[in-house]
Each structure stands twice: as C-alpha cells, then as structure tokens.
C-alpha cells in the first residue's frame, strides 16, 4: 500500500527543521522517512541536513528529472529528490519541510498529502530568527514580510501544530497527529 506524504510548512523561524531533527528517532522507529532536501545554500549556512549545491548543479538536476518537487523562495532553490516516490511506493510515510507557496502544486502532484502547518506566537518569530543568526537583518526582515503574505490562510485541509512552547511538546503533538491520521 502506498505511504502517506506529510507536508510540514510554516513561517521561517517557526521551527520546522528543529522539529524534524528532534523527532528523527521516533519517526524512524515507526518507519517514517524524513526528506533530505537539495538547496542552493552554502554548506556552512545550511542549518539542516540538506545537500548544498550550486545554482548550475541544481538547474541540471532539475532538468534531468531528479526532483519530485522543486520551488524557489527566499532567493534560493529547493529540490525534493525523486526517490521519495520509491519510499511512498514501499509504504513508508514520508515527511518533508515544504513551502507554503508551493502547497497547491504539491497537492496537485500528491492529492492525498497530509498538510501540517507549524505555528508560533508572532513575536517569537523575530526573536528566533535573530537568535538563530543564519540570515542577516535585511534577510530576516524579508522573511518576516514574506510570512505576512500568508496571513490570508492556505487552501485545503490543514492540521495546525503549535511550536510556541518546548520542542519536546511539539514532538509529542506531531507523533499524536500522525497517530490520529493513521501513521
Ligand atoms: N520550541 C522552540 N522553542 C524555542 N526555540 C525554538 C523552538 N523551536 C525552534 N527553536 C529555535 O528557533 C530557531 C528557528 O528554528 P528552525 O531553524 O528550526 O526554523 P525553521 O522553521 O526550519 O526555519 P526556516 O524555514 O527559516 O529554515 C532556531 O534557532 C531554533 O533553535
Ligand atoms: O515561505 P514558504 O513558501 O512557506 O517557504 C519557502 C521556503 O523557505 C523555507 O526554507 P528555509 O527557510 O530556506 O529553510 C521553507 O522550508 C521553504 O523551502
């Protein structure tokens, strides 16, 4: 039976990568695969377990059909390797860090996907982005401005996960959410 695609989204700084890292062991224990993205960000600045590539390499990979999904945002290119389709065919749940702007296209390609929106209190976002220090102040303001453009809401069914409190709480909530959805 085909596995479920779980599409985790949320504002930059809401804690998507932190949650995926913190939940890695319990997710692996239940056979859920976490996607390692391909990103045109320098290896030093990745901040997540991803493959850093140049723009030229990304474009070549995309042209050759290496990605199941790909998008551009924040001045970067993001690719989801094609092998997620093998994992899904094998029956694994597959969890990825997705883009809100790409959600409609992701749903078109994977109609049964489970969309999960990570949220935090608005004033926490700026604090978290600043404390993380991966982007400079101008880039942080651009990310906060981008977040504001999604205030109108996203289309289609969505599960909300709050990450305003401790990360360990969010891990438990994520596992419960997957249990409830049958994964
Ligand atoms: N529950 C939490 N409590 C306190 N700090 C947190 C929590 N979750 C994440 N953080 C911190 O917030 C910052 C942003 O988290 P993270 O990089 O995981 O966000 P993200 O959603 O993946 O952002 P981006 O989309 O920009 O990559 C990090 O410095 C992280 O340590
Ligand atoms: O703003 P939206 O469209 O939700 O997301 C755009 C992109 O930004 C984030 O990546 P990162 O912050 O560069 O790691 C998301 O993971 C996504 O890939």
Automatic annotation (TrEMBL):
GO terms for biological process: 5-phosphoribose 1-diphosphate biosynthetic process; organic phosphonate metabolic process. One of its GO terms (cellular component) is cytosol. It is an enzyme of class 2 (transferase). GO terms for molecular function: ATP binding; ribose 1,5-bisphosphate phosphokinase activity. Pathway: Metabolic intermediate biosynthesis; 5-phospho-alpha-D-ribose 1-diphosphate biosynthesis; 5-phospho-alpha-D-ribose 1-diphosphate from D-ribose 5-phosphate (route II): step 3/3. SUPFAM superfamilies: P-loop containing nucleoside triphosphate hydrolases. ATP binds at residues 10-17. NCBIfam families: phosphon_PhnN, PRK10078.1. Belongs to the ribose 1,5-bisphosphokinase family. This is Ribose 1,5-bisphosphate phosphokinase PhnN. It comes from Pseudomonas panipatensis. The gene is phnN.
């Amino acid at each position: 039976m085909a596995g479920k695609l779980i599409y985790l989204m949320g504002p930059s700084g809401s804690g998507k990568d932190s949650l995926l890292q913190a939940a890695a062991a319990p997710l692996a224990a239940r056979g859920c695969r976490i996607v390692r993205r391909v990103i045109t960000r320098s290896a030093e600045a990745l901040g997540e377990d991803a493959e850093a590539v140049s723009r030229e390499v990304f474009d070549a990979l995309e042209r050759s059909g290496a990605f199941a999904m790909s998008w551009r945002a924040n001045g970067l290119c993001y690719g989801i390797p094609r092998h997620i389709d093998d994992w899904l065919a094998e029956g694994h749940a597959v969890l990825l860090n997705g883009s809100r702007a790409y959600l409609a296209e992701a749903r078109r390609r994977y109609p049964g996907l489970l969309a999960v929106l990570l949220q935090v209190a608005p004033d926490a976002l700026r604090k978290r982005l600043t404390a993380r220090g991966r982007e400079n102040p101008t880039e942080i303001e651009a990310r906060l401005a981008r977040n504001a453009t999604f205030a109108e809401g996203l289309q289609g069914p969505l599960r909300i996960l709050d990450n305003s409190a401790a990360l360990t709480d969010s891990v438990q909530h994520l596992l419960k959410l997957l249990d409830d959805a049958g994964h």
